[in-house]
Design a protein that fits this description.
The protein is an alpha/beta fold. The chain contains 9 helices and 9 strands. Strands 5-4-3-2-1-9-8-7-6 form a 9-stranded parallel sheet. The radius of gyration is 15 Å and the shape is globular.
Length: about 210
């Protein structure tokens, strides 16, 4: 399945979160995701040997998918991810220094936010894609209200508590995409299992287009 190369301004709509993935399995897992149509993949930095996993991930699929790290908490971590080829920086919080460092390096950064104040702080620091986290705590109406006041070119993703079974209200609220972790991958899942779950998720997203 071919797809245009992801861009800084428009990340793909589904971000796979591979929390707990190990270097010796990441390429096979990523291959199943890409085959199913997922074009953004993050390895959280609290996974085992995350930089090695990101290095292998980017070498294998960086040309067709936006690959990088999640749970990025410091500017140094941004540098570390960039050093192994990562192009995607995802954070659970709004840290202007982390955002600015990623922007300076030309990376796609997707900081987490909860409130309008955090969203605007992220935008001021240079972010153009934000993630409501944890989205399930706030609900689709929260995203709709925040989007009403954000610049129109800022994309909002929902992460945490969003999956194939409940995409419709989030899409109706105007999300540009979703981030999905445990529904797609947990330690012990085979590449085949991940591929099946990813195909179902992609089909659910496309059904609401």
């Amino acid at each position: 399945m071919s797809s245009p190369e992801p861009t800084l301004s428009r990340p793909p709509p589904i971000v796979a979160i591979l929390r707990g993935v190990k270097p010796d399995e990441v390429v096979a897992i990523a291959g199943a995701l890409v085959e199913a149509g997922v074009r953004a993949i993050e390895v959280p930095l609290n996974s085992p040997d995350p930089l090695e996993s990101i290095k292998r991930l980017c070498a294998a699929y960086g040309h067709v998918a936006l690959c990088g790290a999640g749970t990025v908490l410091t500017p140094k971590a941004v540098d570390d991810v960039a050093g192994v080829g990562g192009k995607l920086i995802v954070t659970p919080n709004t840290d202007p220094e982390v955002i600015a460092r990623a922007v300076t390096l030309g990376l796609t950064v997707m900081p987490g936010f909860a409130t309008p104040s955090e969203a605007f702080a992220a935008v001021k620091a240079g972010a153009r894609a934000l993630k409501l986290f944890p989205a399930g705590t706030f609900g689709p109406s929260h995203i709709k209200a925040v989007r009403d006041v954000l610049p129109k070119d800022v994309l909002v993703y929902a992460v945490g508590g969003v999956g194939a079974a409940n995409i419709e209200p989030w899409r109706a609220a105007g999300v540009a995409g979703i981030g999905v972790g445990g529904e797609l991958y947990r330690p012990g899942y085979s590449a085949q299992e991940v591929g099946q779950k990813a195909a179902a998720l992609v089909a659910a997203w496309n059904a609401q287009a």
